Amino acid sequence: MELAQVDTTVMAAAAGAADFSVWALFWKADIIVKTVMIMLVVASIWCWSIIIEKSIRLKRLNRDAADFEESFWSGGSLETLYDRIGAQPQDPMSAVFSAAMREWRRSTDSGVAGADRGSSLTERIDRVMVVTVNREVERIERQLTILASTGSTAPFIGLFGTVWGIMNSFQSIAISKNTSLAVVAPGIAEALFATALGLLAAIPAVIAYNKISKDMDRYAARLDDFSSEFSAIISRQLEGHS
Question: What whole-number distance in Å separates Cα of residue 194 and Cα of residue 206?
Answer without folding.
Answer: 18
